[in-house]
Each structure stands twice: as structure tokens, then as C-alpha cells.
Amino acid sequence: MTNAPGWLYQAVSFLTALALVSAFAALSCRTLHLVIRAYAAQSVLLGLAALAVGLEPVRWHILALGLLTIVLKGGAIPWFLFKVMEDVKIRREAAPFIGYPASLLGGVGLALVSYAAVRSVMPESFTGRGLAMGLTLMLLGLWLMVGRKKAVTQAVGLLIVDNGIFVAALSTTFGMPMIVELGLLFDLLVCVTVIGVLIFRIQSSFASINTDNLSRLKG
Amino acid sequence: MKPGLAAAAVWAQPFVLLMLAPLVQGCVRKLKAVLQNRQGAGVLQPYWDLLKNLRKEEVVSETASPIMRFVPYAAFSATFLACFLVPVLLPASPLGFAGDMIALVYLLALPRFFMALGGLDAGSAFGGMGSSREMMISSAAEPALIAALFTAAVRAGSTGAAEAASAAAASAPAALGPGLALGFIALFLVALAECGRLPVDNPATHLELTMVHEAMILEHSGRSLALIELSSMLKLTLFLTLLANLFIPWGLASRTDPASAVFSAGIFGLKLGGLVLTLSVVENSTAKLRLFRVPDFLGIAFVLALLGLLSEGILRLGL
Prior knowledge:
The complex is a heterodimer.
Chain A: H1 6-28, H2 32-53, H3 60-88, H4 100-121, H5 126-147, H6 151-173, H7 178-206
Helix pairs in contact in A: 1-2, 1-5, 2-3, 2-6, 3-7, 4-5, 5-6, 6-7
Chain B: H1 3-35, H2 45-55, H3 66-83, H4 101-121, H5 125-156, H6 161-170, H7 178-194, H8 213-216, H9 222-247, H10 258-285, H11 294-313
Helix pairs in contact in B: 1-9, 1-10, 2-9, 3-4, 3-9, 4-5, 5-6, 5-7, 5-11, 6-9, 7-9, 7-11, 9-10
């Protein structure tokens, strides 16, 4: 990526910045469908960014990874989550732990913290910016998980954390070895399936998917 | 080129905006009508409305103080003065030496202040309700507006509107960064709130419970009403001009002379047309927000502007 043409560089920067904005979109949306859509958009944007990174010089495993990201994270996983949503018939995050304006402003604060932290150990470069952005996405995902009650939103938070790891790996090492990436994607699919089943079980025991109900199970 | 002619071209810019403002309003209304399968009034209708109101007798409430008569003049002159700080076709503004974009923000706040006073002054219940709502919206919109304008200012290293616009135009293809896009979206959302457009306030309704801007100016009539309407049209055009020149960095003339003004007028017209189309599509495809959701809406605009500002200046978001 160091001697890539300017427009390609610009495209990568634009796509990843939009991916960061879609993490903020997931933080600001009230309806669960929109949260899942924001995740899907983020995954597609990151997949496109990976395609652009792998274009010059041509790295086939990054191109394959970009395509897989778009198909699996942008298509299959959101589709599965939509299916789960259809069956549990719950649409809105009614009373989150952290309010919407507060969680947005907190998210901006987290972005500042992670950029400042990475800046203090790494010079301003492609790798440094990528690591800072990966860290920001991980923190935003965690922020989404602790701020909301619904199991679906928390699952999306976990998936955003995974996208953060993807960005960090892409920018520091130009993608991990193919077998590791495939393993990660497969893990993610299994994880989402398990979360889907879990959401069903929570729904059938409590007629709600608020995870704070789970604390009632303590003996 | 004679310097006198160039100065004349620079000073002509705010008057171009003034002439254009009712046309912009007419185009938005016509496009909205067409999108709703209505025929709609012609695009020149706002001019005739203004002329009709200017000729009509003015009726002022008996309980009103002299402030009521003073409000339309104050509102119009502050809005028109704000136009003198903005580059339209040339990379210079007539009073750019005297005030920057911060002055612009507060010149736009001044009409709201006076209109809110006017709303309270007339002694009708609607006026006070409209004033309090308008003040709530404007206090939430102001930080977002300043942050969005600073996104453009950081690149130029100057808070002057003309400097920011010419810096954006000079670095046109390389300027297409995330900061520009985020600043554009944030300023567009703020413009919807500031000009009383649809997700925040419906400009076409006089329904008691929903109107904001219209409730405030309900007691004005005749010449006062014409001036207030003209200043709100001018405000919309001013916001669209800011969007076109600061965040769509093409077509602003690079030199200050009338010949390049004619060239950039064509591109400015295209950009303005595109923005008018976007505005009418957005207005047609959204429902009005509940009043207490408006701060959330403007909070999103503020966060977007803040992210744009950070990515432009401090952080460089993205890879």
C-alpha cells in the first residue's frame, strides 16, 4: 500500500472512515433492524476497503478475504440475524442502560482515547492509523455491548469488535495467513448461530430478550 | 481587468443571492409538488406572493409594543448582512475582511432572536409557543453548525468563508476526504433544522400543534410578513450556497474578475439545482420528528460534524 496510486489510497481512507461512521450509526439507532443494517453496511465497506488494499500490488489472499467478508459478514450473518428478529418479534431497544446522545458522545470520546493511545506508541502512518481505527472499532463494539439490554444489539456489538480486529490485522500485517482468517470467519459463523439459538432460549423463558433478566437465574 | 469592475462583481454577489432566493423557494415547492403527483404553483410564485404582501396594509395587534414593528427590519437586515460574508461565485466576499464564519453564525442567530421577541410581543398564545420551540431548536443547532463550518475552516487554516471555499476549490480532487463528506452531511442536517424544513418543522402547514417557525410569525402581515418571508428564503439560499461552495469543491472561480464569475455561475447553478433536488427528495421521504426528538437529530449532526472536524484536523480517521 506504500506505493499505491493516490486515488486507491483515497478510496481506502474514505471507505474505512465510512465504516467508522457506521459504527456510530449502530450506536445511534433505536430500532434493532437498523442496528443490524449498520453492521452489514460496515462489513461491506470494510470488505471493499480490503479489496482496494489487495489491488496494488495484487495480493490474492486479501482479495479473497475481501470477497468473503462482503458475502459472509455483509450478507449471511445479517440475514441470519434478521431471521432471528422475525421470530422473536421484538423491534426496539426501549430503555438502554446508556441513553442515545450520551452513548454517541461517549463513542467520540473513545475514538479520541484510542487515537491518542496509539499515537503515543506509533508514528503517524498507514499502520498506525489502521491500528488506531481497529482499536476504536473494538472499543465502540464493547461500548455498544455494555450500553444496551437487548441480546441482538449485544451480538452486533461483538461483531463490531470482530470487525475492529479485522481492520487491525489488515493494516498491520496485510492480513493474517489465509487459514487463520478462514478459521476466524468460521468461528464467527458458529458464534452467531449460537447467539441466535441463545436469543431464542432467552425469548422463550422470559418473553423478552433483555439480557438483564438473566441475572434472575442466579440461585 | 479593471480593479473597479472586479470589486463591482464581488459586491454584486449578495444581491444575486437576494434575487435568487424566491426562485430557490419556488423550485423547492414545485419539485415537492411534482414528487407528490400534484401540479403545484409555478416556480415564480414566491415573487408574486412577496409583491402582493408588500402592497397590502399592515395590521398590528393593539397590545404589541414598538418591537413588533422593528422585528421584520432587524431580521431581514441581519440575514442580508450575513450574505455579505459568503463567497457565491468568486473567491472573495464583500465584507470578508470584517467578519468570518463565526460572525456569520451569529448574524444568522440575530434574526431568530428578534423573531422570537416578535412572537412573544404580539400577545397571542401561538407566538409564545413558536418562540420557545424555535429557541430550543436553535440552541441545539448552533454547536453543530459551528463544528460543521470549522470542518471547512481547518483545511484552509482560516475561519474566513472565502478563504475556506477557495482552499477547498484549490485542492479539489485531493480534498475528497471523509472530513468533507461528514461536514457536508452535518451541515445539511443543520440546514434542515435552521431553515425549518421537514424532519424538524413543516414549512407548508399551519396546524396548531406542529408549527414552529410559522407560529412565531403568525401575527405579522403586509410588508412585515413579506420581509420575514424574504429573509427566511434568503436564509435557505444562504445555507445551500455554503453547502455548495464549502463542501462541493468544484466550480468556484479561482480569480476575481467578472469573466470567471460568468463561468462559475453555470456550475453554481448546477450545484444549487442538485441541492434543491436533494432537499425536496429528503423532505418528501421523511416524516416530521416529534419535537423532543429534535435534539437527538441535531446531536447526530453534531457528532458527525465533530468526527469530520477530527478527521480533518487532528485524527485523520480511516486508514
